[in-house]
């Protein structure tokens, strides 16, 4: 009799770890032990040599696509940082699991979306993710204002709020959706456009392009400020 079909996902961050294999083996052992206790029929997905700074990993994307198609009941990881180091990415993945009706299990720290405690934790993660989005928007806005004061030209003024920009960026970078799919999703959610019309892929493309240019500009400013501070410290020393 076959067990519950589950994905066992493993990840290590450096090529050295990927070649050594110990990290992947240790994760696999922990997941298999839990699977034996719960009657899971595990299928393995893994991204050796990939960072958890974002979700742009080939096997993770394949795993999420299979889960969305209900080919598996859920996904299990040995540790949270094997899946994500971003509150926003994790909360978005939890929201995706709840919406698409698949389970997400983390062994350390303990998290199981099928339990009341897991769902409560998911709610708290969503709150912290929203806070992080707002802080990112605030820092980006402050950085852009500083660039303007320095006379840097930043292109056309932003037409959409930070919340809309964050939503579009999340759909693109976390959900892996294309511009056409994002436009359809924004229209479905009744997110208003500047002109009051339906969303179009070209509008989404321009918004994403502007958002990424803003991030590059803000990062450049931060790097410049850090370099200036380091130079001043060196001179004082």
TrEMBL record:
SUPFAM superfamilies assigned: Resolvase-like
Domain Resolvase/invertase-type recombinase catalytic: 5-151
Molecular function, one GO term: DNA binding
Protein name: Resolvase
Keywords: DNA recombination, DNA-binding
Gene3D superfamilies registered for this protein in UniProt: Resolvase, N-terminal catalytic domain (3.40.50.1390)
CDD domains documented for this protein: Ser_Recombinase (cd00338)
């Amino acid at each position: 009799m076959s067990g519950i079909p589950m994905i066992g996902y493993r990840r290590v961050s450096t090529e050295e770890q990927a070649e050594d294999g110990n990290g992947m083996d240790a994760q696999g052992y922990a997941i298999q032990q839990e699977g034996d206790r719960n009657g899971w029929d595990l299928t393995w997905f893994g991204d050796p040599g990939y960072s958890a700074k974002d979700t742009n990993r080939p096997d993770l994307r394949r795993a999420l696509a299979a889960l969305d198609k209900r080919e598996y009941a859920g996904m299990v990881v040995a540790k949270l940082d094997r899946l994500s180091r971003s509150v926003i990415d994790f909360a978005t993945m939890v929201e995706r699991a709840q919406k698409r009706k698949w389970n997400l299990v983390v062994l350390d720290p303990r998290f199981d979306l099928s339990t009341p405690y897991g769902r409560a934790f998911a709610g708290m993660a969503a709150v912290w993710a929203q806070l992080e989005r707002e802080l990112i928007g605030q820092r980006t806005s402050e950085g852009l204002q500083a660039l303007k004061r320095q006379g840097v030209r930043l292109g056309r003024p932003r037409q959409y709020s930070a919340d809309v920009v964050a939503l579009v960026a999340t759909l693109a970078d976390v959900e892996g959706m294309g511009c056409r799919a994002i436009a359809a999703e924004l229209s479905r959610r009744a997110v208003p456009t500047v002109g009051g019309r339906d969303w179009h892929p070209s509008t989404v493309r321009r918004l994403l392009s502007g958002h990424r240019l803003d991030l590059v500009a803000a990062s450049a400013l931060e790097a410049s400020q850090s370099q200036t501070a380091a130079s001043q410290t060196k001179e004082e020393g």
